[in-house]
Amino acid sequence: LFAFVGGVLAVRLVPRLGAWKMSVAGYACQCVALLGLALIGRPEGGQEAGIAIAMLALFLFGQGFGPGSHTMTFASLSYPTSLRGVGVGFNQTLMRGSSTVSLFLFPVLVAALGTGVFWVIFLAPLAGLLALLAIRWEPSGYDVDAEDFAGR
User: Fold this and answer.
1) How far apart are CA 60 and CA 46, in angstroms?
2) Which residues of 92-122 are buried (b: 16+ CB within 10 A; e: fewer)?
3) Which end of the chain has fewer CB atoms surrounding its CB within 10 Å, N or C?
């Protein structure tokens, strides 16, 4: 529900805010949520359980609002037509490859670290956030295909 609401808001707000700002906000939500979950660890009462559930909701909302909605936007709109297939294919390869690796590594990490696994998972949205802050590229509203035809 929270990811769906975030995704619907993303579709509605991207023309006004841009994909870059929304992705930064989504990654920031995920970082806050994972830090909260890491600090809580195993909830020891109703209040901590409620906060942990709220952190999970924030994580999912941030995913829907930010990187979940815009990861393919960056890949699709950042490459001119002559490179788009390779760029999108490379993006999909990285996404699916990392999903496959995490499918096998997550249970191993949970067994080894318990709730400390949230500190490790925190590194993923942090890396995305740092990459966006280092490369301030806004693909929304930019005609990347014009680059292919500029020299003709």
Assistant:
1) 21
2) eeeeeeeeeeeeeeeeeeeeeeeeebbebbb
3) C
Instruction: Name the residue with higher pLDDT: 52 or 146.
Output: 52
The confidence score (pLDDT) of residue 151 equals: 57
Distance CA 85, CA 138 (A): 20
pLDDT confidence of residue 147:
67
Confidence of residue 81 (pLDDT cuts 50, 70, 90): confident
Distance CA 147, CA 65 (A): 29
Euclidean distance between CA atoms 137 and 152, whole angstroms: 25
For residues 10 and 29, the answer to whether their CB atoms sit within 8 Å is: no
**How far apart are the C-alpha atoms of 54 and 14, rounded to whole Å?**
25
* Rg from Cα positions in the chain: 18
d(CA 82, CA 79): 8
Task: Sort residue 80 into left (φ over 0), alpha (ψ -120 to 50) or beta.
Answer: beta
If pLDDT is split at 50, 70 and 90, which confidence band does 149 have?
A: low
In angstroms, the CA 109 to CA 51 distance is: 23
Q: pTM of this prediction?
A: 0.85
